[in-house]
Amino acid sequence: MRLSPVFTRADAENPANLAFFDAALDGVFVLGGDQSIAMQVLMDTPLETALAAAYARGAVIAGTSAGLAVQSRAMIAGYAGDENGPANALNEGAALLWNDSTRRGLSFGVTRAILEQHFWERARAGRLLNALAQPGAPHVGLGVDGYTAVQVRGGTRLEGMFGLYTAAVFDAETFGAAEKAAYPGGLLDMRNVLFHMLAPGDFSYDLETRRFSLAAPPERAERDFSALALPDGAGPLLLACGLPTLPLDHPAWAPLLEWAGGGKILVIVLAPPDDDLGDRLRDHLGETVSADLIFPLADPEAFTNFDLNPYAALLITGADASLIEVSTLARINEAWRAGRPLALDDSAAAIAGVFYAAHPPTPGDAAEREAAVQGSLITGGTTVRPGLALLEATFTPRLMADNRWGRLVALAYAHPDRLAFGLNDGAALEITAAGARVTGTNGLIALDLRGAALAAGTNGGFVIANGWLDVFAPGTFVRDA
C-alpha cells in the first residue's frame, strides 16, 4: 500500500505523485474530507487523467465520505450557504450540486445517479431529493450510510453491498417526479419518487434500467390518501411540530386559533417533570390566547377527572414520545370524535396514528446517535407501540431537524399497510372536511410501502423495493375532500 499526498493542485501535477499510477496499480482509495476542495484540487489535472486511465484499465476506485462523493459526476458539494442544513433541506437552492464543465465530480464518475454519503447518519435524504429535482441532474440518487459500502459495477449496477447498515435509492425518473417537481413558495414539491433500500445480501439494483432484483417496478402510479379522511362527526385535526417556538402569527398556528374562535384552549403538556415546556408555553401564549395548562404525566388521576367541556379546542404537546401513556389520553380521542377541534404537536403528533415510534429525541452522543439513527433501520431497532388511532396512518414528527428518518421508514416497514408521514418543524398537516393540506413554512414527507416488496439483509437491515415517497410543500393538498 502506498500513500499519495495530494493536497494542492501543485501536488496533482507533481510527477512524483503521478508515478504511483503505473500499470501495476490495482486500486485507489480516496480518503474523506471536503469533496468540493478535493475536486478543486483534482479537476482537469494530470492526476485526474491518470486516475481515469487506471479506472479504464480495470483498477478499483473506492472511497469513504468525501471520497465517495467525488465518484459522482454530478456531485453534491454540500449545502448552499450557512443558512441551509438538514432541517430546511427542502428549501429551493439548499442543495449545492456541481454539474457543469467548471464544477463537477471526477470525470469518469457515475453518471446515471447522484451519490450521497453519510446518508441516514447525517439526515441527508432531503438534500438528495432537492438535488434530484435540479434541471440537468441525474434523476436517480444513491445514499450510502456510514460504515457501509456498495459496489458499482460498470457504472450502472449496484451490488455486493457490505457493512453495518443500509443504503437507499431514490428514483425520481421513472414516474416523472423530478420533471414535474416545483418550488411553490420556495419549498420543494415532488410526487411519485420510487423508494428502494438495499442491505447486505443477494440484492442488486440497475441504474440504467432502474430495476431492483427483488421486484419489478409498478406499471403505473396509483395513489390513495384516503387514510387522511376524518371519521364521521370528528372535529378538525392539526398535526404540527414546534408550535411552542413559533410566533402566534405563524401560519402553523392559524388553523387552531381559527377553530377555537376566541374561546379557551386547553393545553395538555406531555413533558418530562424537569422540562420547562409548560413555562415556555405560558409565556408564549401570554394574554393573547385564552388557555389553561394541564400536565397528565404529573397527575394522571387529575387529568382523568378534568372537565373538558369549557374548552373550544384542545392542544397536546410534548418532547419525548417514550414517556407517553396512550391509555391516559383515551378521553381525548373520544372528545375529538365527538367534534372537538384538536391539535397534536411534536411527540403528541406521533401518537395520532395507529402506531408510533416510542423513542425520546435523538441523542447528542455520537455512539447513542448511531444506534438511534442508523440502528433504527435494522430489524428490531425501533420500538413500535399502538397509538391513539385517530387516523389509519403513522406519523413521525421533527423528521429532518431531529433526524428521525429511520423512525419514519421503520414504522412503514413494520406496518406496510399504513401510510407513513414525516412532519417537519414549522410545518403542519391540517385535516378538515375540505381535505388534508400542508400549511406552515416547511414540507411534509409521505412514505407509502403498501405495494412494496420487503426483505431483510444479512445484517438485519431493511430491504425495500418499489415504495413511494412524496414531498408536499405548504399550501398543497395531500388529499382533497
Q: How many independent structural domains? A: 2
- Overall body shape: elongated
Q: Which structural class matches the secondary elements?
A: alpha/beta
**Low-confidence sequence ranges:** none
Could you walk me through the main structural features you see in this protein, from its secondary elements to its overall organization?
This protein has two domains: 9-175, Rossmann fold, CATH 3.40.50.880; 227-450, Rossmann fold. The mean pLDDT is 95. Strands 5, 6, 9, 10, 20, 21, 24, 25 and 26 form a nine-stranded mixed sheet that branches. It has an eight-stranded mixed sheet with strand order 15-14-16-17-13-22-23-27. Strands 7-8-11-12 form a four-stranded antiparallel sheet, with no helix packed on it. A hairpin with a 4-residue loop joins strand 11 (205-206) and strand 12. It starts with 8 loop residues before the first helix and ends with a strand. It has 481 residues and is an alpha/beta fold. The longest helix has 12 residues, at 46-57. It has 14 helices and 27 strands.
What's this, in brief?
The protein has 481 residues and is an alpha/beta fold. It contains 14 helices and 27 strands.
Write the layout of secondary structure elements.
Layout: H1 9-12, H2 15-18, E1 27-30, H3 35-42, H4 46-57, E2 60-63, H5 66-69, E3 75-79, E4 95-98, E5 114-117, H6 125-132, E6 140-144, E7 148-153, E8 157-163, E9 167-171, H7 177-180, E10 190-198, E11 205-206, E12 211-212, E13 237-240, H8 254-260, E14 265-270, H9 277-285, E15 291-294, H10 300-304, E16 313-318, H11 330-337, E17 342-346, H12 347-350, E18 355-357, H13 366-373, E19 384-386, E20 393-396, H14 405-414, E21 419-423, E22 427-432, E23 435-440, E24 444-448, E25 453-456, E26 462-472, E27 477-480
Parallel strand pairs: 1-2, 5-6, 13-17, 14-15, 14-16, 16-17, 20-21
Antiparallel strand pairs: 3-4, 6-9, 7-8, 8-11, 9-10, 10-26, 11-12, 13-22, 18-19, 21-24, 22-23, 23-27, 24-26, 25-26
